[in-house]
Amino acid sequence: MADVILICPPYSRIIYGKAKIKAGVPINPLLNLALLASPPIKADFKPKILDLNLIDDCDSFLRQEIRNEKPKFAGFTFTTPLFQESTRLARIIKEIDANIKLIAGGPHATTFPEEILENSPFDIVAVGESDFVIKDLLELPIENVQGIVFKKDGAIVRNEKHKRIDNLDTLPFPAWHLYDLSKYNKPSLSNIASPPGYLETSRGCPWNCVFCNKNIHGFKFRMKTPERVVDEIEYMLKAGFKEINLIDDTFNADIVRAKLICEEIIKRGIKFPWHPNNGMRVDRVDRELFSLMKRSGCYTVSFGLESGNQTILNNINKGINLEQSEQAVRLAKLEGMETFGFFMLGLPGETEKTMQDTINFAKRLKLDVAKFNITIPLPGTKMFNEWEAKGSIKTKDWSKYNYYSPYEDIYDHPTLSHDILNKYYRKAFLSFYFSPSLLLRRLVGGIKRKTIIRDIKLFFQTNWLS
């Protein structure tokens, strides 16, 4: 029987169900649950991970697992749009055994711990970095566990905060063996080899974009050493992963360290495909970095470009300029890298002209892939607070806070109508992906990378006209 069950709610259906690029939907084993499970294992406890994305009948499966395992604790990690579903699943657990203590964690829980305890069956909220919270709850009286908020005798108690971990090399390796990796062996636009695994080489981001929530890892940039990073890569490859996806907020904040990681991979002669999944800073790159990334196995580079208009970039505190974006993409292409750009439509101060600038910019960069989203003001961000103060926020039904669901239910944009936003969202996809030059680049690139069959299949799995 398990001492604790760690549950991943079915995000693939809830968050990505209405995504245009269906084939880009990632269903990968979550790193955070593997991290949470590792300290209890070292302390001789037995954790178990349930990934409900792999299950058709989540409710029946969860009931069976809870009855079989009889855990002391059950933990959920979730983002804002998954709060409602996590709460529903938590109620199922309480119906089976009211004595099981339910733990909530993640960015939404950290932002609203009291609200969650007041409006859900959760007993405990883990706030901020919570690597050792599960182990501490299994070992210590609840009053002595740092970094939690909990219910006691009808009242809400907030324990002392725990300090963020400065030396990330001291963290144990994630407990990847708790996943059946054979169940994640699926082709996707986001990887070329399966199963892919998530790797964290750093935490924190020193920049202050208005759309980003920093309440878990904060602004201080903390790094694993290059040697530790590559040790972890070797561990992941032995565990069965065939590709590595970096999920750092800012992998290349320290360009020297980024280069040293690549050099260490090359030095050890490790052969595997990898890429920075969350997007790199365009102002922290040079050609040598891309050359080293390419030689060490990186095949595609993602950039957080956000907008093709400088005024909008300034509005969101991005701290970059258009020339840096153009230079970064150009240098990556010179090294033979596939390029992927992230863009947002409907940012603060946006107009029809600025959105058209973004579409034109994406096409001018000759990116291989562009991802356009209508902006969603997430709780815990400066954008949310400012738009709420203006009266633009229409609901706090957190299930609606989803980049792939109708945003009209969430807010009224301060300067744009819904019709205009939707028009440019659709226009962005059609204009970019049906550009003759893009289709030719994808064809030639697919032949060179030997992914042409995959690319054709993925093309027909996309909802272009939705």
Q: Layout of helices and strands, plus pairs?
A:
Blueprint: E1 4-8, H1 11-14, H2 31-42, E2 47-51, H3 58-69, E3 73-77, H4 83-96, E4 101-105, H5 107-111, H6 113-118, E5 124-126, H7 133-139, E6 148-152, E7 155-158, E8 196-199, E9 202-203, E10 222-223, H8 226-239, E11 243-246, H9 255-268, E12 274-276, H10 287-295, E13 300-306, H11 310-315, H12 322-334, E14 338-345, H13 352-364, E15 369-374, H14 382-389, H15 418-433, H16 436-449, H17 452-459
Parallel strand pairs: 1-2, 1-3, 3-4, 4-5, 8-11, 11-12, 13-14, 14-15
Antiparallel strand pairs: 5-6, 6-7, 9-10
Characterise the protein shown here:
By secondary structure, the chain is an alpha/beta fold. Helices cover 38% and strands 15% of the residues. It has helices spanning 11-14, 31-42, 58-69, 83-96, 107-111, 113-118, 133-139, 226-239, 255-268, 287-295, 310-315, 322-334, 352-364, 382-389, 418-433, 436-449, 452-459, and strands spanning 4-8, 47-51, 73-77, 101-105, 124-126, 148-152, 155-158, 196-199, 202-203, 222-223, 243-246, 274-276, 300-306, 338-345, 369-374. The strands form four sheets. A seven-stranded mixed beta sheet has the order 2-1-3-4-5-6-7, sandwiched between helices. Strands 8-11-12 form a three-stranded parallel beta sheet, covered by helices on one side. α13 (352-364) links the parallel β14 and β15 (369-374). The radius of gyration is 22 Å and the shape is globular. The protein starts with a strand and ends in a 7-residue tail after the last helix. The model has no long low-confidence stretch (mean pLDDT 91).
